[in-house]
């Protein structure tokens, strides 16, 4: 190679290196500035609240990690089902709000958190529904309310599909938070139609390749926390200027702890999820549907479709919030859960009165649907 060519090559490499260095410096500068801002959640003990640990062994041999919290003598149990790539700690604010007054069950879905791994063929939404049925059988002696976020909401729908007899008796109410009943593969992700089609065409093989290179990718994920922090801050939350850096760190740590091959194994199940037919089962009980108005992973239209299939459901649109609405706007999510618990208590009281009078209680589906914009008018 001539000296001239060597010089050109050296210049190109030098320019590229300088560009990478400048990019890394800019990234660190941006993250540093964010972390210097006042953070009201800096002392919040994320991931530290613990209940009584329990292991539920499923029919296919998986050991599901669960925790029981709150007063054991409470007449009603609230069962929380977390989302894709998260774990039971994602319900931090809900646990903090309710642990003194309500019995609660939190569990790590298979392959997530402290639960054991399974082969890819067992990473399906239907299997998660069967897992939830086994959690209820093992840990919930009486009536319960189910709360599911994202994939956890899909788990609740899968339970309704496979065990409809539980709803109205065992299961007295349902909250579906930032989730979908199906057709996720048609999401535009906020992109122009043509680009969105290309992304959906390319995503499955790309995810598959990542899964086959999981160990290498996981090492890179551990090293790239600043990039992950910035990406999650802008994609997982609706208003990045107000979200706490500590909350972003907490959510990012849960996602980062989920192995890449688990992410790859569950991706096809999420894309093929279709439980619209299960909504008829949920219509037996009071149901709350909550979604952030800026959610691009499970957009508002998906929650509206669920509400349309549940005539009595209360739909709450959370202004400015995105997919991690349970962490971004916990007060509004907690209020929706509290209203659901009130509706369940009222429905149970009506059943008791009807039983004493020898009458059939009015079906849940007789009322008109309700919509609620949090912070606005009803």
Automatic annotation (TrEMBL):
The leader peptide range reads: 1-26
Please give the superkingdom of this protein's source. Answer: Bacteria
Query: Which residue ranges does UniProt annotate as crossing the membrane?
Result: none
Query: Does the keyword field hold tRNA processing?
Result: no
Q: Which residues form the AB hydrolase-1 domain?
A: 77-330
The record's section on InterPro entries has: AB_hydrolase_1 (IPR000073), AB_hydrolase_fold (IPR029058), AB_hydrolase_sf (IPR050266), Epox_hydrolase-like (IPR000639)
**Is Nuclease tagged as a keyword?**
no
One example of the protein's molecular function in GO is: hydrolase activity
Pfam families, per the entry:
Abhydrolase_1 (PF00561)
Where are the annotated segments for Disordered? 358-378
Q: Which UniProt keywords apply?
A: Hydrolase, Signal
| Protein's name in the database | Alpha/beta hydrolase
Give the source species: Sphaerisporangium aureirubrum
């Amino acid at each position: 190679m001539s000296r001239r060519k060597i010089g050109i090559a050296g210049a190109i490499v030098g320019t590229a290196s300088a560009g990478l260095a400048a990019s890394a410096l800019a990234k660190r500068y941006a993250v540093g500035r964010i972390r210097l801002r006042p953070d009201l959640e800096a002392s919040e003990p994320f991931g530290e609240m613990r209940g009584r640990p329990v292991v539920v062994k499923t029919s296919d041999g998986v050991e599901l990690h669960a925790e029981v919290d709150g007063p054991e003598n409470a007449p009603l149990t609230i069962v929380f089902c977390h989302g894709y790539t998260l774990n039971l700690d994602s319900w931090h604010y809900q646990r903090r709000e309710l642990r003194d007054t309500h019995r609660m069950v939190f569990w790590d879905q298979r392959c997530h958190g402290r639960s054991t791994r399974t082969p890819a063929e067992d990473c399906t939404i239907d299997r998660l529904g069967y897992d939830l049925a086994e959690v209820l059988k093992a840990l919930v002696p009486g009536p319960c309310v189910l709360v599911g976020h994202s994939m956890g909401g899909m788990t609740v729908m899968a339970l309704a599909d496979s065990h409809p007899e539980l709803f109205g008796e065992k299961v007295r109410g349902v909250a579906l938070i930032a989730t979908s009943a199906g057709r996720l593969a048609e999401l535009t992700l906020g992109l122009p139609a043509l680009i969105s089609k290309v992304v959906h065409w390319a995503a499955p093989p790309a995810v598959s390749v990542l899964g086959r290179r999981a160990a290498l990718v996981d090492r890179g994920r551990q090293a790239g926390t600043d990039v992950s922090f910035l990406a999650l801050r802008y994609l997982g939350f609706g208003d990045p200027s107000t979200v706490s850096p500590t909350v972003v760190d907490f959510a990012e740590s849960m996602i980062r702890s989920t192995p890449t091959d688990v992410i790859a194994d569950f991706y096809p199940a999420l894309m093929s999820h279709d439980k619209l037919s299960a909504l008829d089962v949920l219509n037996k009980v009071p149901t709350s549907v909550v979604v952030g108005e800026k959610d691009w992973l499970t957009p508002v239209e998906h929650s509206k479709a669920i509400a349309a299939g549940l005539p009595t459901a209360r739909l709450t649109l959370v202004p400015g919030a995105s997919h991690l609405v349970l962490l971004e706007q916990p007060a509004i999510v907690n209020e929706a859960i509290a209203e659901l618990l009130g509706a369940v208590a009222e429905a149970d009281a009506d059943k008791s009165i009807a039983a004493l009078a020898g009458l059939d209680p009015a079906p849940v589906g007789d009322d008109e649907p309700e919509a609620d914009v949090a912070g606005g008018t009803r």
